[in-house]
TrEMBL record:
Membrane-traversing stretches: none
Official protein name in the record: Phosphatidylethanolamine-binding protein
Superkingdom of this protein's organism: Eukaryota
Disordered: region residues: 1-21
UniProt cross-references to Pfam families, sorted A to Z: PBP
Signal peptide: none
SUPFAM superfamilies: PEBP-like
Amino acid sequence: MSRISHKTLAALPSNSPQSSPTFGLSSTYFSSVNMHYIQYGIGCLVSLLLTVAKGHEDKLFTRSPAFAAYPYPTFFIECPEIGASGSHMDIAHAHDGSGYFPELRWPITTADTQEYVLLCEDPDEPLAAPVIHGLYYGIPPMFVGLHRSDFVEADSRNDPYRLRGGFKYGANGGGGVYLAPQPARGQGPHRYFFELIALNHTIDQSKLSPMANFDEIAREIEGKIIGWGEWFGVIERT
């Protein structure tokens, strides 16, 4: 599998930008942290400007009461192949092109993490609720990144919703593994939020439908959330 794990990072040279920070807290580390905050600030500014124009960001799942204890992201998510949060997604990541799932990376979160859930939402559709473009659960706690090849369906007749990355996908607005962005022409820019949620207990999959839906996942993660991070990309079709 192409997923990125702790061992992958450990194999990188000490001066690699993807290496984990050491207890020495070198100047390189502080520069990296500062860059994270700068990128996060830029992303927040872009998001704020678009929110003022459209006003739907408060409907995202991570803005719901279930996240009252964690109203703000607790860790950063990067997308090396596109750029900082708020960057424009290229044609390769759009429905009009190849529809690739963006590569995501994040730091080791906490030893208490038992599972990750990943959700992709578009809050800028003129609808009552954000459109779900992707829903994934059972992501192993040792993962620190995902590649588009992880989102290919595994050849498993007994477990039809399992992906090659070793986790499962649920229902979205398109019916497949991932609904690639395709906003209506002339609607202006749409944001696609990739929200990664850390849980301190695994989801009881026996309580889910074969193809789990959003409401089921939301119910199962209640009281288990110990942090989250997000990255969003922007697409506009004129």
